[in-house]
Design a protein that fits this description.
By secondary structure, the chain is α/β, with parallel strands linked by helices. The protein is built from 17 helices and twelve strands. The chain has helices at 22-28, 34-45, 61-67, 86-95, 120-132, 141-149, 171-179, 198-213, 224-230, 245-253, 259-269, 276-283, 294-302, 314-323, 330-336, 340-345, 351-371, and strands at residues 5-7, 50-52, 71-74, 99-104, 136-138, 155-157, 186-189, 216-219, 270-271, 289-291, 307-311, 327-329. The strands form two sheets. It has a six-stranded parallel β-sheet, with helices on both faces. Strand 11, helix 14 (314-323) and strand 12 (327-329) form a beta-alpha-beta unit.
Length: 378
């Protein structure tokens, strides 16, 4: 009997979330609920039994090796500076199984960056890719250049697996049809309240202002302090956001508003998701989605809601370029998008070109899975 596959991640939701403290909840999603989206996508791509490590089987190298024949790894931005990946790389070494990396990406602020100061654990990860990965599915050309810099060439550029969630034959037309309708409601996606770049803070404030005054909601997916704040009334969320956190956050995001106005915004307009099915279902109710977050926009896009990605680093730029997703550079957004209607008017989408690129990327991803003797869904 053929052994099942191990999945390093989730099936797109966190069981028992309402009764969990926030630190545990964020650890389950790698401190970013957006990770659920591409993990969900990977689990739907594979047409045979999967065992999620940490849920179905424990994080024990021997247990994984004994029960499974390969480890499937939704990979995201594993290749970045200032990342100590020692614990996870040690686990991969001890598992001693074939490794199937999907969506592997390098990250940097500069798309032209060519020299990296990776932690030794990341360099060891690159060794494992050479040694144990039959083929690798990567995000785009920037990641390809980084891998080639380290002598790795057995990859396929596939974009993000989340691009393949919606299996409807007329998926591109769904988006095109909604683009022709009126702009009655919208989604925005929060990034980080205190970014290093002043321009990102200006974008965040603009999105908050649009959401507060318009028929929209804002989704926060990745800042642990923000998630603690949003969950503070849950009796199982025992961590305190900090004495001055709320006041500092209010001054940062809504500098002209009083604290009660900010609290009303948080109560009525801010959301976070630990279930991709619910995230996509809710996103389908809106006419437009915009923000700096790749997977927040992608949840909306896969629901058939048009989205505009604001690009701000190598990761977002290579992904939108690879997948032909509507996008706008950060400074261009600040210069030209003074209303949410301005932003929606910047949407450019060719459903035929998108369909053809998506078909090509899906074929490459199937090549990676087939190289590891993994069946794919129809």
């Amino acid at each position: 009997m053929t052994k099942p596959l191990a999945l390093s991640g989730t099936f797109g939701h966190v069981p028992g979330l309402p009764f969990m403290d926030t630190e545990t909840a964020m650890r389950r999603v790698g401190n970013n609920c957006g990770n659920l989206v591409f993990q969900y996508a990977v689990s739907r791509l594979i047409g045979e039994p999967l065992k999620a490590v940490g849920t179905d089987i424990p994080w024990g190298p021997k247990q994984v090796r004994d029960l499974c024949r390969a480890l499937v790894i939704p990979s995201a931005n594993f290749l970045r500076e200032n990342l100590d990946f020692s614990a996870y790389v040690n686990f991969l070494e001890k598992v001693d199984l074939p490794l199937v990396f999907i969506g592997l990406g390098a990250q940097a602020d500069d798309f032209e960056k060519s020299e990296f100061d990776f932690h030794p654990s990341v360099l060891r990860l690159l060794d494992l890719i050479r040694e144990r990965a039959p083929r690798v599915a990567i995000r785009g050309e920037f990641t390809a250049r980084v891998l080639e810099r380290y002598g790795i060439t057995h990859f396929e550029v596939t974009g993000c697996p989340s691009n393949f969630i919606n299996a409807a034959p007329d998926f591109p037309e769904m988006i095109a049809r909604k683009m022709q309708g009126p702009l009655r409601s919208f989604l925005t996606h929060a990034d980080e309240p205190w970014p290093k770049k002043p321009a990102k803070k200006e974008v965040e404030r603009r999105l908050v202002a649009w959401t507060q005054s318009g028929r929209g909601i804002m989704i926060q997916q990745s800042v642990p302090g923000m998630i603690r704040y949003l969950r503070e009334n849950n009796p199982f969320s025992t961590e305190e956001p900090g004495e001055n956190f709320e006041a500092n956050l209010a001054r940062t995001l809504m500098p002209e508003a009083d604290l009660e106005t900010f609290r009303e915004f948080v109560a009525l307009k801010l959301r976070t998701y630990y279930s991709v099915d619910q995230w996509i279902e809710d996103s389908s109710k809106f006419d437009f989605s915009i923000g700096l977050r790749l997977h927040g926009n992608m949840a909306a896009w896969q629901s058939g809601t048009p989205a505009l990605w604001i690009t701000h680093d190598s990761r977002t730029q290579e992904l939108v370029d690879t997948m032909l997703l509507p996008n706008i550079r950060l400074q261009d957004f600040l210069d030209t998008c003074h209303t949410v209607q301005d932003a929606r008017d910047r949407l450019e989408f060719d459903p035929d070109a998108y369909r053809e690129r998506r078909r090509e990327l899906r074929g490459r991803l199937e090549t990676v899975l087939e190289a590891a003797d993994i069946r794919v869904t129809a």
